[in-house]
Design a protein that fits this description.
With 270 residues, the protein is α/β, with parallel strands linked by helices. Helices cover 47% and strands 14% of the residues. The chain has one domain: 3-Layer(aba) Sandwich (Rossmann fold), CATH 3.40.50.720. Bound molecules: nicotinamide-adenine-dinucleotide.
């Protein structure tokens, strides 16, 4: 259901890889709600070509940028403002990757060069995005910046290895940059801590199917889907949430408040 919640707003959406991506769903919903935006992803992800379909569907241009490169981000913000004809109202950071997880390294056997890459891609890049936006004075007042996190930032999920530290960094950056941008431009910065979701990044984590089912059985509402996450994100980009900032917002069907559920008890008792 479209309500023109983002009518007249301009944005940058990072991280749409394919139809399953959370960023893809956000782009589709943002378009439905009347926003104009540019899409961006790492040059290497462009090779898949899927993002071109989304660009066509949303009448959006694509500007490649490796989110770890300040130079790429400077080019992205300059071009985005040219294309959209003004400053930016919303940014979605939907980026995550861990070479250690991709290569199946356990927590006790992490490669430290890859660990730093994980932190750079999945955590520090969020700081770089806001740093470049600040330097270019690219954000409109009452803008909204959202990044996607996972509960492993705060609780132990052994297979999430170095990504758990990247997410803790991400959530800390949201608080600290949220303070800064709030004072400077009334811009809010939040992270959404999303349920396990069947995407390329999600299913790449060891044991994904088990913790997807576990979370689903623990949560009174079940797991939040990528579509649900897109709806929540749209609400955070809209003017209905102007005073929400520096928060890590649980979007998990109730999972984070649970101790144990009857479904899990039944499963273990069998
Ligand atoms: N899927 C889940 O279970 C889940 C749960 C909670 C949070 N999240 C988070 O949601 C976000 C989006 O992931 P997704 O699940 O939609 O998976 P996805 O694989 O579709 O998206 C991840 C994106 O990160 C991009 N990326 C990787 N390296 C990059 C770089 N250097 N520069 C720019 N972009 C880069 C990829 O190209 C891809 O588009 C991530 O932050 C992820 O950690 C996912």
């Amino acid at each position: 259901m479209a309500n023109n919640l983002l009518k007249g707003k301009k944005g940058i959406i990072f991280g749409a890889l394919d139809e399953k991506s959370i960023a893809w769903k956000v782009a589709v919903r943002a378009k439905e709600e009347g926003a104009e935006f540019v899409l961006t992803n790492a040059p290497i992800a462009m090779r898949m070509g899927e993002i071109n379909k989304l660009a066509e569907q949303c009448n959006a241009q694509i500007i490649p940028a490796d989110a770890t490169s300040v130079e790429d981000l400077e080019n992205l913000f300059t071009k985005a403002q040219e294309i959209l004809g003004g400053k930016i109202d919303f940014i979605l950071h939907s980026i995550g990757s861990s070479p250690n997880i991709r290569k199946g390294k356990s927590y006790g056997d992490l490669n430290y060069d890859w660990f730093q890459k994980t932190l750079d891609i999945s955590g520090l890049s969020f700081h770089k995005v806001m740093h470049v936006a600040e330097k270019q004075d690219a954000l409109n007042e009452w803008g909204s910046v959202v990044a996607l996190s996972y509960i492993a930032a705060q609780r132990v999920f052994p297979d999430y290895t170095d990504m758990s530290h990247a997410k803790a960094l991400l959530e800390s950056i949201a608080r600290n940059y949220g303070y800064r941008l709030g004072r400077m431009k009334k811009v809010r910065v939040n992270t959404i801590s999303q349920s396990p979701t069947k995407t390329t990044a999600g299913t790449g984590v060891g044991g994904f199917d088990a913790f997807y089912d576990y979370a689903d059985k623990m949560s009174p509402l079940g797991n939040a889907s990528a579509e649900d996450c897109a709806n929540y994100t749209i609400s955070l980009f809209s003017d209905l949430t102007r005073m929400v900032t520096m928060q890590n917002l649980m979007h998990d069907g109730g999972f984070s408040s649970m101790g144990i559920s009857e479904d899990i008890v039944d499963m273990i008792s069998k």
